[in-house]
Amino acid sequence: MAKDCQYCGTSVYIPESGAIVFNPKDTKEEGMILPLPLNHKSSDVQVYEYKSKEELKSSLPILFEGATPRYWSHIINTETSRSFPISIQHLYERLCHPEMAELIHEGSFDAHLQPIVDMKNNQIHGYESLLRSNNLSVSPGELFSYANRSGLQSMLDQKARKTAVKAKSEHLLEGQKIFINFLPSTIYVPEFCLKHTFQVVKEFDLDPSDLVFEVVETEKITDVAHLRSILDTYKSSGMKVALDDVGTGYSTLDMLSLLQPDYLKIDRSYVEGCHKNIKNQTFLYQVMERAGQIGIQVLAEGIETKEEWDWLRKLGVDYGQGYFIGKPKPYPEKELIFP
């Protein structure tokens, strides 16, 4: 039985034997003869049947010579007659590393929790949930990199959200926030794509206001209206939202009034050495002024020294996070002591 991801619209696994269907006009030049047996050939479509995944993997460079990695074809499971679309890059990655696809599909993950402290009273405000695989040989960086290359970002992002919600239910007190990272590029239609997350929150009987969904994205967001619709969908369900890495990429000060997050997280590059770096201090003054005008709470991440902590606290930053406060751990620390 095929295992499908109803959220990203593609099968996680490649059939052991089957057929691949593609448009020859988008690959090799017309008139060229492929050195592979084609079971069906026309001007519009070509079908190549394969008897093993190893055969399919070795045939890809020939079948798709001249095609871009993003070129899409269809895979047919000849046993069930089911088919699904997949790009050439995603197909290749899943053929080369099926164990990684299995890991993401099975969702064998834990959350490590890093404390976030109220800088005014040194009390725990909440924790950021950081995804960790139970397979110790696979680092988080490798996992997310593979998900990106194989087209499984939506599935992994969804698993990460569920893992974080579960951690909140098991380890945190009522009123303590759980900060949950998510990728906007994996959410196509917010009302549909976030239904699973909202069902999980209801399943664990959590107060939605204790959940803070934190935007993370490595590429610049160009569709601000779409991002705003995602944040509004979270907010309409009673949850909070945070904008990460403010000061870099798309997370500029000008975006704050457009997106209206509940929290903004200052990029660690502006926190490092802030007690002596005039350029960083100038930016931090601007952040505090803009956030105060709009009513956004400010969180400084990457605090690693007492000097940084003291300077940010004097500035009036609301919340702090970093190794000076506490490192990510499977369970929250019972007590945090500051020198």
From TrEMBL:
InterPro entries: Cyclic-di-GMP_PDE-like, EAL_dom, EAL_sf. PANTHER family: BLUE LIGHT- AND TEMPERATURE-REGULATED ANTIREPRESSOR BLUF, CYCLIC DI-GMP PHOSPHODIESTERASE PDEF. This is EAL domain, c-di-GMP-specific phosphodiesterase class I (Or its enzymatically inactive variant). Residues 93-339 form the EAL domain. It comes from Halobacillus dabanensis. GO terms for molecular function: cyclic-guanylate-specific phosphodiesterase activity. Coiled coil: none annotated.
